[in-house]
Amino acid sequence: MDIYPSHRDCGNPDFVEANTKKNVTTAALAPEGWFLKEAYMPGIPFPMPQTGTEVMLNGKFHYHGVGVDYHSMFTAVSPRKGSEDWIKAADDLVWYMPWAKKGSALLSSLPPVEWYIHFDYTAPAALAGQALNITMMTNKPGSQVFYYFPGQRRVRLMPTYAYDSPQIGFENQYTMDEPEIFFGTLDRFDWKLVGKKEIYVLYNAFGGNNFDGKFENFALREFVNPADRHYELHRVWVVDATVKAGMRHSAPKRTYYLDEDSWNYMAGEDYDGQGKIWKVKEGFLTPIYETSSCDVSAFAQYNLADGRYLVDMHAAGTGRDIFYTMEGSGPRFNANYYTSDSLRAMSER
Q1: Which of 142, 148, 206, 333 could form a disulfide with 328 if both were Cys (CB 3.0 to 4.6 A apart)?
Q2: What is the mean pLDDT of the segment spanning 145-162?
Q3: What is the DSSP code string of 131-142?
């Protein structure tokens, strides 16, 4: 495990820093205690957090532009024991965060949307043609998912396709709230702020963005190539998550590690019902020059029980870089692009 000198390269544009300062006296949680009621956006809601919930919300609203475009991305799961066959699902994905538009606005004055996502699968044959529009709200649990099934030529609302629901086509290796370390709402867990500690994390880890390289050189049979894992020692916020009484989740205990400077989710651990460590996750943090910020996009998740791992949200071997934007113009940066009617029109062409 090669360790490199630590560099604190992550910052934010001036308008994000200005909003973050305002949030010291402005940001507030809703009475439910798990979603954000008010803050100046785009900005870090709780620059001096006192609870685990506040830290997790900082991660959810860290700044990385108003939109991200992934072209021909692979969601890949390593082979089962005794097999050499990878699951390699190719898809195009666009991700839009309306609260992140340049400037300063109170969250309460904006539509209650954390993000929109559209993606469509182009391979393998079992998934090709399937497409999704997903909306994550800032004031409601779960997410709204519209799913197009080409065999039925129908768009279906998937009201329970959230939290620990296994993503279709990945042999129970990937749930809906696992992309980029954590991608869900906070309502099913109690969040305990453990504090800060220094750990080795993937920082300035450009291996996941090597779009001119070969995917096979990046993702080896049992783990991501160590040559593409650039570790540095950094301070992180540590948050423990324990499933609430009366709630359920396949991982009843989780731990998350967030970068002190950028508030990105850097790493995580899931524990099973017997308290044994089950999954280990690590994100590849890189500076994003288009947005003057940092982001974890590529990430790897190791299932220790099954002896398999997955990589997602990367550019490695795709032939095209990930595109970030601060402006967000065009039809894909409009709420109407993410409706069921829009999904039906795009999918039936």
Answers
A1: 333
A2: 95
A3: EEEEEEESSSSS
Percent share of the chain, pLDDT over 90: 94
| Spatial distance between the Cα atoms of 75 and 66, rounded to a whole number of angstroms | 23
> CA 218, CA 227: separation in Å to the nearest integer?
8
Taking the CA atoms of residue 160, residue 164, residue 167 and residue 172 in that order, the dihedral angle to the nearest 10 degrees is -130
DSSP letter for 330, please: S
Task: List the CATH number of the domain containing 140.
Answer: 2.50.20.10
Identify the residue whose tokens are 């003057």. 292
- State pLDDT tens for residues 313-330: 999 999 999 999 998 888
Residue 45 phi/psi, 5° resolution? -60, -45
Whether residue 45 is preceded by a cis peptide bond, meaning omega within 30 degrees of 0, is no
C-alpha 72, offset from chain centre: 18
Q: Domain of 133?
A: 3-347
Q: Please tell me the distance from the alpha carbon of residue 92 to that of residue 147, in angstroms, as a whole number.
A: 15
Q: Are 260 and 157 in contact (CB under 8 A)?
A: no
